Amino acid sequence: MTRRALTRRGAAALAIASASLSAACVTNTEGGNPEGWEPIVPAEVPEIAALVPAPVAADGTLSVGTNPPFAPFEFKDSQGTLIGVELDLGRALAAVMGLDFDPQEMDFSLILPAVQAGSLDAGMSGFTDNEERRQSYDFVDFLYAGIQWAQQPGSDVDPANPCGLTVAVQRTTVSETDDVRPKSDDCLARGEDPITVLSFDTSDNAALAALTGRADALSADSPVTAWAVERSRGDLELVGEMFDAAPYGIAVPKDSPLAPAMAAALQHLIDTGDYARILRQWNIDSGLLDQALINEQPLEGQP
């Protein structure tokens, strides 16, 4: 079974420290939010707040589990503050629902069990919404993301024809298990040179390999690759199109009324443009939704 089916696609951050890019230094923290970032905290919408389950409304807080680093979704700045696009989106959703936002850092493997046990309201940590997980949880989907390659400018990498190349990936992610290694097997089957796969424990080290020329290309989740390219200040560029897209979702207990309440809040953010503004502040401008989805299905009453 692929990592996509078991965990988030890519368990570690890819965060390139802008002050050290000339030396190709990669770290797990950043100096802060992206240039031009500003907080987007909308006003409460009473009719949406009325949809929030009574226990959550009584508590007045939306508690979510998250597991940094996984830039740009969640990671820590140089002061140790949790930041990222999921944190910004969660804070905006909570505001629309009339709740305070309470992100709690924890081990990734403990987040979904905590949601199921009721000790957390939701999980926001780069979760892929898939059929296996839908047996136990509902997902308020907020983005479609796939695999995206990057190369050094001037290289001639073709992700569809990578035989003989050296490609960096994060170990056990779908970039390794579903993308690069199967392509390498296909190369061998055609009598061509295989791909040399450089597998790293973290996505930041995979990016470093591409930055320094140790690898011809990087294969990673599309938002992670886009973040690396943006932070590289021209030392990396996207190559080819995103492929194998799947939804990222916010996990809530199965059949909980929190799912439609949160989806209504997300639809409000979509309608007002705040949703797109939040994601684009983090260099995410593809895979955006034009309507809120629960388990990839529109809210009742939406076309």
Notes on the structure:
InterPro entries: Solute-binding_3/MltF_N (IPR001638). Keywords: Signal. This is ABC transporter substrate-binding protein. The chain is α/β, with parallel strands linked by helices and 303 residues long. The chain folds into two domains: 3-145 and 247-298, Periplasmic binding protein-like II (D-Maltodextrin-Binding Protein, domain 2); 147-244, 3-Layer(aba) Sandwich (D-Maltodextrin-Binding Protein, domain 2). 32% of the residues lie in helices and 25% in strands. Strands 9, 10, 11, 12, 13, 14 and 15 form a seven-stranded mixed beta sheet that branches. The protein has a three-stranded mixed beta sheet with strand order 3-5-6. A three-stranded parallel beta sheet has the order 7-4-8, sandwiched between helices. Strand 5 (75-77) and strand 6 (82-83) form a beta hairpin. Helix 4 packs antiparallel against helix 11 (274-280).
Top keywords for this entry?
3-stranded mixed beta sheet, 25% strand, ABC transporter substrate-binding protein, Solute-binding_3/MltF_N, 7-stranded mixed beta sheet, 303 residues, single chain, D-Maltodextrin-Binding Protein, domain 2, 15 strands, alpha/beta, signal, 11 helices
Shape: elongated
Strand content: 25-35%
SS-based structural class? Answer: alpha/beta
Fold-level CATH name of the largest domain: D-Maltodextrin-Binding Protein, domain 2
Low-confidence stretches: 1-29
CATH architecture of the largest domain: 3-Layer(aba) Sandwich
Organism: Corynebacterium liangguodongii
Pfam family, one: SBP_bac_3
InterPro entries: Solute-binding_3/MltF_N (IPR001638)
Protein name: ABC transporter substrate-binding protein
